Amino acid sequence: MEWDWNFVWEIMPTLIEGVKITILATLLGSVLAAMVGLAIALARRSPNKGLSRSVGFLAEFIRGTPLLVQLYFIFYVLPDIGILLPPLVAGVIGLGLHYGTYTAEVYRAGIDNVPRGQWEAAKACNLNARQTWTHIIMPQAIPPMIPALANYFIAMFKETPLLSAITVLELMNQAKSVANTYYRYVEPMTLVGAFFLVISLFSVVLLRWLERRYGRIEK
Amino acid sequence: MLETLDFMTQWSGYFGLILQGALVTIELTLMGSVLALIMAFLAGLGRLSRFFAIRALATAYIEFFRGTSIFVQLFWAYFVLPFVGISLTPLQAGVLALGLNVGAYGAEVVRGAIQSIGREQYEACTALNLGRWQAMRHVILPQALLVMLPTFGNNAIELLKATAVVSLISLTDLTFQAQVVRSQTGNTLVPFTTILVIYFALALIISWGVRSLERRMARGLDGVRV
Predict the structure, then answer these.
(1) What residue intervals traverse the membrane (chain B) (predicted)?
(2) Which of A7, A100, B150, B185 is 20 to 30 A removed from A110 (C-alpha atoms)?
(3) CA of A159: which chain B residue's CA is closest?
């Protein structure tokens, strides 16, 4: 079967619609993953053993099971207990929770990397727990984490095609519907691959820049 | 009473279905891991090659397979390759996509581990007049392997998780069977919870296996490695 450029231009607008949803899902998912990760990291540091253990186990469980199955779980099981979510929302929650367990490790490493002396100095200055976190620990812990977090957001971007399985009309789903309508798979599937490759290559450049900008801790 | 019995036999049948799916998932994970391991070493060593052409080829392979998602690669292998005359069964397409994708991630692990071995080891090889291949085979790789192992374990778990995607090209793995049970019984909670637990158990087995392998390989290296 020959590559047909006319067909490519014909389906391009539909695919661009899909790209928009893909990017939207990635952005929302990233924001959620950043928040969930922080919550998990803080809960695991909690002095309450019951809380830290159960959150720790739950995070391990989510990290050890496939995102696709989790998406099915959110999309098919939750409606049975009365929580009916639109596909995109279910998808973003799935992405956010799954990658939140990965970003939690980044936060943990970042927080552990803040020298003990900083904690002691904060105590010596009579700062309370909240002030210590917001003014001393976080400002030092977050910049070095940024490249690692961005790395996971790029990984998440590459997982968004899974959302097509729960009927989100993102890039992969648009390509599938185009392919099924015209029964031409070569162009749509190859274009999806090309879109992902181009966006990932750009994001690798962005990542290198972030690493240069934030990777080093100023002494 | 009869109803409960009926219910029980029904569920045991569905559970059998899910176990069959688990076997397919395990089979895919094993075959995918073997292919991934081969590709990881080929591409990882390729990136360190003396020849520009081999380095460029290895880099292109790694960037391509890490840059596009596994899902797209799988669909490409299953739907596009037939048009250029290569027809793959779902299992072949699955193993190919999983192996090539995870192999690309593994290649960076191989490269990183080999480069993490200290310069003095290479210098010692030169001093002992070992050839490049001999040095790699007898001195560098045995040490680098131990560095790679934990990350390979994580990659194997990623591969296990990625196998769920093959259900979308109609391969009857765990996820596919759970969907079958869902559509036949209308029950969603039981099948999906069951397979989540099975996936998690498989992941635990992998991480346990890698840890014990690591202990075995590290034996006799105490004091050598700091």
Answers:
(1) 12-43, 64-88, 189-210
(2) B150
(3) B69
